[in-house]
Design brief:
phosphopantothenate--cysteine ligase activity; binds cytidine-5'-triphosphate; alpha/beta; 5 helices; decarboxylase; binds calcium ion; 27% helix; eight-stranded mixed beta sheet
């Protein structure tokens, strides 16, 4: 609870947090989505507000979560491309981006204009790759600090380290979503924080609120070090 107290760790900083899942339409009434609850991202948004930041929360689909009090703004989005447009539009003068959202890697290549009718025994939907929002931010990073997430089921550290490098991140929160007490749905998470110098911090299973406070504190420390 100490960690949830107000502090000045991000005082005056502009922070973008993405949360929840994206939805990719396949016809006017259907979509492909994922099980993200949005809990981790909302907890981070709250922790960033508590730390004195000006917070823009870009929210995909969530489990009907309460909007944290004290946000600068909340932008609700549907598809990955909608999320990218929202994030990009606030990126240039923001100081920190934390990308907790579960972003759809693919979308329907040709969403049907009318409701798809039930005809054949099988239905094939061609999928096209979505833009990688975080990769794009990493490519045009100037003063910003970038924090990504990686949901893995195997080789968590190895895959996480690859993502950290490839996306030009300052920190990656890697979690094994197959572990008991971790992942999309629950209120707890088990994470390892990875850093570009190869160091890591393995965290115990804890409440997402508690993990959020740690992520914010570590991000703030990275930003302080950059400016020193
Ligand atoms: N991400 C993103 N845009 C995408 C896909 C992912 O910004 N189109 C972000 C996520 O929000 C997360 C990080 O990249 O912070 C890693 O997402 P993850 O799904 O673990 O990695 P991918 O790069 O998509 O690789 P893969 O799914 O193949 O493991
Ligand atoms: Ca992915």
């Amino acid at each position: 609870e100490l960690l949830a107290c107000r502090n000045d760790l991000l005082k005056g900083k502009k922070v973008i947090v993405t949360a929840g899942g994206t939805r990719e339409p396949i016809d006017p009434v259907r979509f492909i989505g994922n099980h993200s609850s949005g809990r981790m991202g909302f907890a981070i948004a709250k922790a960033a507000v508590m730390a004195g930041a000006e917070v823009t929360l870009v929210a995909g689909t969530t489990d009907n979560l309460k909007t944290p009090v004290g946000l600068a703004r909340r932008i609700d989005v549907g598809s990955t491309r909608d999320m990218k447009a929202a994030v990009d539009s606030y990126y240039d003068d923001c100081d920190l981006v934390i990308k907790a959202a579960a972003v759809a890697d693919y979308r329907s290549a040709h969403p049907a204009e009318n409701k798809i009718k039930k005809n054949d025994d099988t239905l094939t939907i061609e999928m096209a790759k979505n833009p990688d929002i975080l990769y794009g931010l990493g490519q045009r990073k100037t003063h910003q600090t970038l924090v990504g997430f990686a949901a893995e089921t195997t080789n968590v550290i190895e895959y996480g380290t690859k993502k950290l490098k490839k996306k030009n991140l300052d920190m990656l929160v890697a979690n094994d979503v197959s572990a008991e007490g971790a992942g999309f749905k629950g209120t707890t998470n088990i994470a390892t924080l990875l850093f570009p110098d190869g160091s890591m911090e393995k965290l115990e299973k804890m409440d997402k609120d508690e993990l959020a406070a740690i992520i914010v504190a570590r991000a703030a420390a990275i930003m302080a070090k950059k400016n020193s």
